[in-house]
Amino acid sequence: MKKTAIILAITSAFSVSAFANGVSGGIELDAKFVNGEKEYTTTNGSGIKAFVGYEGFGLSAKRKANFENEYNVNYKHDFESFWLKGEYEFVDKKSRQQPANDQNKFGVTVGGNVADMFDTSFRLRKDIDLNSNNATPRGDITRFDLAAGKQLTERMYLNAKVVGQKQHEKKVIAGDQNKDMIYNLELRATFNAIDNMIPYVEIGNEGKHGDDKRNTYGKVGVVFPF
Questions:
Q1: Which residues, at least 6 apart from 193, have a Cβ–Cβ distance to it below 8 Å?
Q2: What's the pTM?
Q3: Does residue 46 belong to any structural domain of this protein?
Q4: CB 128 within 8 A of CB 137
Q5: Per-residue b/e over 129-142, b at no fewer than 16 CB within 10 Å?
Q6: Domain for residue 99, yes or no?
Q7: pLDDT digit string (tens) for 170-207?
Q8: Which InterPro entries did the record assign (predicted)?
């Protein structure tokens, strides 16, 4: 049923593109590797995503390799010197082999360009677990993303990001419950002057609530826009 929903979302996106001017969208494929091995855990970002946008509004649906489904709706408004974006995302985890709570994610992002030198943005997001009746503790995370990017060459855009996550619900932390704050680092190179496709490469370092363990990961992906 959920695979059918993703296929319908992709088909619908292309159908809208054929009939409405100003509609943008595409399909994104990505794969994440942690310590050299493909990642299939709950932190996995691998999967396929279909997205569509029109006059500031955006919709997307993603099927992840760990059988989670992500559905996102957002709106971006451009002001004279900055832009503002609000979003809501629902993460459906019912298809996972191990019990997990679904999630509601509410976010707001503000961004702009600094003196025609580089782009910058700041996102604040609240990730709240739902009661999925599986006796799993419900998490409550406050997250921020601070990013900066620049078009280095005609073909390459470089973006760096710091992500902070504070877990307010101690019961979900496996390990030292005082270690409720983590910081992740991301660096992505996007190659945006290639016809009909936008490949990217990302490297990062991630922390884990409850201990000092950190993982270095790599991600490769490609966007097929229309």
A1: 154, 155
A2: 0.86
A3: no
A4: no
A5: beebeeebeebebe
A6: no
A7: 999 989 999 999 999 999 999 987 888 999 999 999 99
A8: Bact_OM_Channel_sf (IPR053713)
Count how many domains the chain has.
1
Nearest residue to 205 (alpha-carbon basis) of 144, 155, 160, 147: 160
Helix, coil or strand: residue 6: helix
Given this model, what pLDDT does residue 95 score? 87
CA–chain centroid gap for 50, Å, is: 13
98 falls in which pLDDT band (50, 70, 90)?
confident
Q: Are 166 and 141 in contact (CB under 8 A)?
A: yes
Determine the residue type at 133.
Answer: N
Which amino acid belongs to residue 55? E
pLDDT category of residue 67 using cuts at 50, 70 and 90: confident
**Left if phi > 0, otherwise alpha if psi is -120 to 50, otherwise beta: which for 168?**
alpha
- DSSP type of residue 68: -
Q: Backbone phi, then psi, for 21, in 5-degree steps?
A: -70, 145
Counting DSSP H helices and E strands in the chain, the numbers are 1, 13
Asked whether residue 184 is assigned to any structural domain, the reply reads yes
Is 127 a member of any domain?
yes
| Angle made by CA atoms 64, 23, 93, in degrees to the nearest 5 | 20
pLDDT on residue 97: 74
Range of the domain at 197: 108-213
Q: In sequence order, which ranges of the chain are alpha helices (DSSP H)?
A: 2-19
Q: Are strands 181-191 and 198-207 parallel, antiparallel or unpaired?
A: antiparallel
Q: Record the tokens describing residue 213, joined without a space.
A: 């363990």
Contact by Cβ (8 Å): 142, 126: yes
